[in-house]
Amino acid sequence: MFSTIAKKVREHQEQFPNAEIIRLGIGDVTLPLAPAVVSAMRQAVEEMGAGETFRGYGDEQGYDFLRQAIQGYYKGKNVSLDEQEIFISDGAKSDLGNILDIFEAENTVLIPNPVYPVYVDTNIMAGRKIIYMDGNEGNNFLPLPDESVKADIIYLCSPNNPTGALYNREQLECWVKYALSNGAVILFDSAYEIFIRSEGYPTSIYQIDGAKNCAIEFCSFSKTAGFTGTRCGYTIVPKELISDGVPLNRLWLRRQTTKFNGVPYIVQRGAEAVFSSAGQAQIRSSIEYYMQNARVISGVLSELGIWHTGGENAPYIWLKCPGGMSSWEFFDIMLEKAGVVGTPGAGFGDNGEGFFRLSAFGNSDSTALAMERIKSFAKSGL
Predict the structure, then answer these.
(1) What tens digit of pLDDT does each residue of 247-301 get?
(2) Which phi and psi angles does 62 have, rounded to 5°?
(3) Threshold 0.90, pTM exceeds
(4) Nearest-CA neighbor of 128 among 145, 151, 147?
(5) HSE of 97, CA atoms in CB hemisphere, 13 A
């Protein structure tokens, strides 16, 4: 999908070399690292340059200082974690794929459609049977359990990528109940938890009773703190989580100590600073910047009467292509008529056909200009 997007944009620019293209498709951040993070990493570099403070190999599970900072962050969510349940990684994407090492190849996997492609592709490469659950306009792209369907592994992402949809407490309780009754393990991707603004919505699966017995949670500093080019995340595997008589915490520790050398000390010091009072204030300012972009996008779509979800508690807006257009048809007309690039929903699965993803991670002025262009050509007739 993304190579096709790049090819189409390149061809458009060759035909119209003076055209200004605004990209609202990519899920990469644009704001720089927070000052508190930069300061901490500079200090860590100085430490690595002095013999008395130099550090070599670290703990594959992560340095204590970062795991304790994450432990404190979860305490603020009223979630109690043992330090040994927290594993530092180079990003949620890596662990979402690597976690499959601890499960049997014969396991059946339940994945929402549309979905973040990593969930699907990693299981296809592992040869697992995949069952898709139906996300659609009727259920706001928030599918719930079907008791007639049996699975061993369940992927959930909330707030969701690509749809921006958010599960409420009652819906997550349904999933936890299903997993417990079927002996399944939920792989819960909470990479966008910091974007949740609505009161009463869980920001961790462990805020649901019983989840520690059936769920592994993945999170990342990429969107939270702009670490897309710095690479750091974490995975939580509760000690209570037992699958087929095997403690998955112990099994994941074995996998990590065998196949992973850990995240650099300098990066982990930067990640620790994210949880400082200054770091929290600075990153939340960046999050508000992106969410203002989301409000601008959502506001224009509402004005135009275009159905969409997301934008309120997520940096993605998932819209229904006007006039019954396919997602690639809408991509082409957006590029040609407005000079705006988004992401065709078809790239996220069959249920994404006819839908389109816009990202709020761009520059605020460019985002506002893009939506003015869309409004102008939409009112003149799509």
Answers:
(1) 999 999 999 999 999 999 999 999 999 999 999 999 999 999 999 999 999 999 9
(2) 115, 155
(3) yes
(4) 151
(5) 13
